[in-house]
Amino acid sequence: MLGKLFKYDMAALTRVLAPLHLAALGVALLAAVCGLAGNGLGQAAHQASGSAGKLFGMFAGFAFMAFGVCLFLLLVLTLATFFVAVHRFYANLFTDEGYLTLTLPVTAHQIVISKVLAAALWLLVDFLVVGACVAMVLFAMDVFSEILSRSDQVGLPSLPTPSEWLSFAHSFLQIIAWLIAAYAALAAGSAAARHKVAASIGAFLLIAVAVGVVMALLNVFAFSALSALAPAYPIGSLDPYGPASNMIGNVVMVALAACSYVACVVRLKRHVNLA
């Protein structure tokens, strides 16, 4: 039954998110055009003089502004994917649509797992699409700049380094943890007699504050402990504070995801008598 739930959730998200990501490709193309136009007009502005140079410079400024807006829209797409997944969770479980969902012969665990897997898969697609779009735009601008400078040193874009992959994994873990936390906040807010959305926002803010306090305390403790051991580290060794902070962040995100998952399951079991 989990497979059927996952297919249903994926289909529901795809109906909204697939057109958005197709539009992202168009925005990336527009960004490339604006960036190339800005570079070309900028070169023309340097070469021209008088009013023509000022005119070229003005149009170059407009082109670069449009380029910046396009890149901003590409980055906003990740937030849009996040909010679409969160809205889908709320609408499917805590509105009139939830009457059908919560009467299916499934467990609370299956419902939450299906929602998390579908949203996680689309967020992964989003990261890859947005990253590829930004990389292609910047590569096109770099090639164009090399052509304008009449340089023969145009290379292919390099693959991500291991540290960049680790940063990607860390960022993805964070967004998944906060996604499940948003699910938990919606589940908690649904218990309010009135203003359920406002209660959900308040619950999410409380979760965010609690996570921030816990991370701050753990980092202070780690910093104090490592400072006490600092004389034991040889001169020129790697700084231990950065890795320790990253490890604390990962542990806190895993704990946040686990606690939020449990809260969602408990709330669903109390919301209706699921099997």
From TrEMBL:
UniProt keyword annotation of Transmembrane helix present: yes
Superkingdom assignment: Bacteria
Residue stretches spanning the membrane: 62-86, 119-145, 165-186, 198-227, 247-268
Keywords: Membrane, Transmembrane, Transmembrane helix
Name the UniProt record assigns to this protein: Uncharacterized protein
